[in-house]
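User: We ran a pulldown and think these components assemble together. Before we commit to crystallization trials, I'd like a predicted model of the whole complex to look at. Sequences follow.
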Amino acid sequence: MDFGFLFSHFAELTITGLALGAIYALVALGYTMVYGVLQLINFAHSEVFMYGTFATAWVAVWVHGTTSVSQGLGSTLGLLALCLIVAMATSAAVALLVERLAYRPLIRRGSPKLVILISSIGASFALSEIMGLRDKFAGWFGVENKLSDYVAQARNVYSSPVTVDPHKVFEFAGYGVTDVDLLVIGAALGMMFALDLFVRRTRLGRGIRSVAQDPEAAALMGVNSTRVIRTTFLIGGLMAGAAATLYMLRIGTTRQDAGFLIGVKAFTAAVMGGIGNLRGALIGGLLLGVMENWGSAVFGTQWKDVVTFVLLVLILLVRPTGILGESLGKARA
Amino acid sequence: MGIKPKLRALAALAAAGLALTACGSSDSSSSTAGSGSDCGHYNLAFLGATTGDAGALGQNMVGGIKLALDEYNKAHSDCTVGLKVFDSQGDPVKATPLATKIVQDTSIIGLVGPGFSGESLATGKTFYAAGLPSISPSATNATITESGWSTWHRVIGNDSIQGAADVKYMENTANAKKIYLIHDDQDYSVGLAGFVKTALGSAMTGEDAVQQKQTDFGPTVTKVTSASPDAVFYAGYYPEAGLLCKQLRQAGYKGLFMSGDGSEDPAFVTTAGAQAAEGAVLSAPAAPAPADFNSKYKALNNKDSGLYSTQSFDAANIFLAGIEAGKTSHADMNTFIGSYDKTGVSGPIKFDSKGDISAQTIYAYKVTGGKLDTANPTLIK
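Assistant: Here's a predicted model for the assembly, 714 residues in total across the polymer chains.
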C-alpha cells in the first residue's frame, strides 16, 4: 500500500479520475432513466455507446482520411462539434431501434420482466456482432474495398486518425490541468444539468416522472406511456452519443466490444448513486472514476476493480438503494 | 394480424444469427483432400484463433500455410495435401476438445500450431500422448518446451531470449539507466515481463500491471511520470500498448517506449497516433519477410502477409518436406523434424532436443516517419 504516492499526486489522480467518471456518468444516465421508467436494466445500452464511438471515428476518417494527425483542441473544435452531432444522432437512432425491436413488442404483450431483460441482452450481442461483422455486410453489397477505411478488419481496434494533444491551462496543486480534462468534465456536467432541468421543468419531463411513479395512474391521466418510453430511450441514446465523443477525444480508439467494460462501469455507477435517480448517476459516475484512480494508486492498478466493487458492496450494505436512493419519479428528479 | 409477419421476421433474424454463429465456429472449413491412387490423402491441421479478438493473427498463419500448400500441391498434383483448420479463438478451454478431435483424425500427419501459449500448455499433453508432431509458428512462452513433450516444436524464439535481448537493447543501445516495467497480466505478458525483470535487476525503477481491454491508463501514467525513467518496457499486446504509449506522451514522458512481439503490428502506430508512436521500439523474434514472399502471399490470399505468416509458411514446409521424403507415420515425421536443418523465409531452422529453435535471433523494429519500419530492423546482439 502506497498512501504516500496517493497524497503526493492527489490532484492529478483526482482530476483524471473525474474526467473518466464524467463519461461513466453520461452513460449511466441511460441505464438509470430506462430503469426509472420500466424497472428494467437495458443491457443493450453499452452497445448504444459503442456505436457512438464508431460514429465519431468514422466522421474523423471521412473528414481527415486515415493519415494520422496530431493537433490542439482549438483547431479540432469544428470537427469535434460535427462528431458530437453525428454520434448523438447515431446513438439515439440505435437506442430507438433497440426500444422498437427488443422492448416495445414485449411490453405491449405484457411479457414478464425477465423475458424483456433477456431480450435486451440478445440485442446487445446482436449489435456488437453486427459491428464486428461489418466487413462481411459490406462484402454482401460488394463495397468492402470502397469502404475499406471504415470496415476493414472489423474485429480489430479502430482508431480515430485525429489525435487531440492536451495543453496545460493552469496548474492546480502540482498538476497541469489540461483543456481536454476541462472540456470533458464541463461538457458532461452541462449536459447533466440540462437533462435535470428538462425532466423537472418540461411537460415531457413530467410525463417521464409520472410513468416512473405509477404507470397505471399516469395512463389514466392521459400520459402516452409508449411515447414516454421512447423519449427515455432517445435521451439515454443522446447522452451515450455525447459520452462516446468525449471518450474518443480522450482515448481515440474503439472496437466492437468496447461498450462492455464502460457499460459495466456505468451500470455500477448508476447502482452506486441509486438506480433510477439522475443525480445519483452523476455522483456514482464521478465517485467511481475517482475511486478507480485512488485505488490504483494505493493498491496497484490491477486492484482497481477490487477497490471499486468492495466500495459498491459497502455502500449497498449501508444504503441498499444507493447513495441518493431510487427516485426518478420522486421529488429529486 | 400485424404480429405474425413481425414474428416471422424475428425468427428469420434469429436463424440468420445462428447461421452466422455457426460460420464463426466452424472447425474444418477448407479440407481439400488428396487425390491419386497410391497417395495417403494426408492433411495438415491448424489449431489457433481464426476468429475472435486475435483472429487476425490466426488468419496470418492460415495464409502462410495455404501458400506453402499451394506451392507443394502445384508441384505434386498427383498427390496433394489438404488443410483442416480448427478455430480455438485463442481460448485454451475451446482448444482442448479440438485437440482430441485432431488426434482422432487419422488423415492428419502433423499440426501447425497451436497458435498461442495458453492453448499450447493446455493441449500439449494430448498431442504428446498421441504422438502427433506439432510445430508452432507463434507460441513463445518459455515453459512449454520445459514440459518434456518430445513431439512439440516451434519455429520462433522463446520469451526468455527475447526478454534478455530487450533489456540489452534498452541498456546498451538506448543507454537507459532507469527502466519502468508494465505488463497486462496475461500468460504471455507475465512470462515476458518476468524475464525482463530478471535481466534488469536494479535498473528497474518501478513496476505496474494493467488489464486487457483497459483504455484509460491515468494512474499508471502518473506512476511512470513521477518515477521519470529513461525507458518504459510494456509486455502485452498492441491495443493497450498503443494507448499506453499515447497517454504517456501526452503526459509529457520523453524517454524510450519499448514493447515485445505482442505489440509488433502496424496497428500499434494507428492506435497510438503517428506522433506519439514515433521512436517507439518493438522487438520480435522474427526477421522481416523476404521481398518476394509478400507478393506471392498477396497473390494467393488477397491481402498482405502479417506477423507469423512467414513462420507458418516455414512450419508447413517442414511437414511437406517430410511427406515428400516418405515420412508418413507420426514417429518417422517426428524424427524427420528433429533432424531438419534448412533456412526458411523466417531464418535458419534447426531444433534443439527440447523443440526450441536453435538460432534464436531477436530483432528490434522501430517506428520512424509515422510508420512501423518492418523492412529494416536491428538485430539485437
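The CA atoms of residues 277 and 327 of chain A lie 5 Å apart. That may be worth checking against your pulldown data before setting up trials.

User: Thanks, that helps.
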